[in-house]
Amino acid sequence: MVLRAAGARRIATATAFGGGLTLLGASTVGLLYLQARQAVKAVGFTRWQAPRVNGIYGQGEGEPIRFAMMGDSTAVGFAVAESGQTPGSMLASGIAAVADRPVRLRRVARTGATSAHLSRQLDRLRSNPPDLAVIFIGANDVIRRQRPVDAVGHLREVVRELVGAGTAVVVGTCPDLGTVQPIGQPLRSIVRRASRQLAAAQTIAVVEEGGRTVSLSDLLASDFLARPEEFFGPDRFHPSAKGYAYAAAAVLPSACAALDLLPEPAEQPAAASDRQPLPVHRAAVEAAEAGGSEVSRTRVDGRERGPRGRWAALVRRPRSTAPKDRVEAPQAADEGVGGDSAAATAGSGQQAPGYTAPEVSESSATG
User: Fold this and answer.
1) Is 238 an active-site residue?
2) Among 72, 223, 235, 340, which one carries the catalytic annotation?
């Protein structure tokens, strides 16, 4: 479903800036709730113990780059068999290879997390802020019917604090839940639209606060729909190891750019023809429709803002292919680092988090 530019701008802007606009009407919310209860019966139950991932990746000289993986089950890598198949491990290994420098990964992501839980994850990073934080969030906000203005507000506050502490922030925006097969029509179209509207609103908020986003919207939509047995995990809701690899490959260039390991697009003149910058709300809408697109701050003729708001650079990258080789497990795991110790005892018996709404506590999540 294609977002109309004017409508998407109104929705995204109101959602991001507290206009009180909700994405779904009352009757639609009721339908979403009822069909979601039916869909949960079709989603497989997966017993899983999260592999240990925290530790040092790569080699080279210098102090390790401090990297935090935040967010929900997508950030955790729910249901993969080995640590090297998780998005955090793949990103840490990729960053280390580009930087020729070790990377210390700390995963604080939690299965089942919504945007409201990000502040808890941030609590565990305040004493030693990372150099880079990658956040995958949004799916549970849509499925659990969180108010978009609240979800985006929580994300905005966390990004603001991280950036203020000197952390580079990359957010993988809400994925396209319309690819999940147990969600039938007409709910599938409704959820797809809600996913992309939330992704656009997330982009506005993150870029305004100094972070950058990568659209995960339809990154794998055609593959998920055409080859679900290959790209979905055993619960038919979360990605498989191959699906996570594609997501990590899409985010890696942005993570490296955020750490100044790759050159940024040059500042654009007002009359640029090839890659003309856009007002952030337009860039957000276009990115929500094109998986893999990055949105970040830019300047035009030395100015951060134009007549229609902040300038943003929209970078449309070619569709990434997943790494062929599995990355290595960390050379050494950090003892006592949150995220893995809890998983050892609470990582089994996790159900797909999208359809139930238990409170996620520090001791009961699998991330």
Assistant:
1) yes
2) 235
Is the pLDDT confidence value at 362 over 50?
A: no
Q: Is 301 a catalytic residue?
A: no
CA gap 112, 356 in Å, rounded: 9
For strands 305-306 and 309-315, give the pairing: antiparallel
Q: What is the pLDDT of residues 276-320, one digit of tens each?
A: 689 999 999 888 888 788 999 998 988 888 888 899 999 987 654
User: Are 208 and 216 in contact, with CB atoms under 8 Å apart?
Assistant: no
Catalytic residue among 72, 73, 117, 176: 73
Q: Which strand (E) or helix (H) includes residue 296?
A: strand 294-297
Looking at residue 325, its pLDDT comes to: 44
| Residue 329 burial class via C-beta count within 10 angstroms: exposed 0-12, middle 13-18, buried 19 and up | middle
Alpha-carbon distances of 33 from 20, 40, 180, rounded to whole Å = 21, 11, 16
Catalytic residue among 89, 131, 217, 238: 238
- Would you call 73 a catalytic residue per the annotation? yes
Length of the chain: 367
Which CA distances in Å does 201 have to 23, 235, 310? Answer: 11, 29, 14
Q: Which residue has the higher pLDDT, 348 or 38?
A: 38
Burial grade of 206 (CB within 10 A; 0-12, 13-18, 19 or more): buried
Beta strands in 14-167 (DSSP E): 55-57, 65-71, 103-107, 132-136
Instruction: Please work out, in degrees rounded to the nearest 5, the angle formed at the alpha carbon of residue 199 by the alpha carbons of 10 and 318.
Output: 120
Please state whether the peptide bond connecting residue 318 to the residue before it is cis, i.e. omega within 30 degrees of 0.
no
- Given the candidates 1.10.3430.10, 3.40.50.1110, 3.20.20.140, 3.90.79.10, the CATH classification of the domain at 5-43+50-355 is 3.40.50.1110
Task: List the chain domain ranges.
Answer: 5-43+50-355
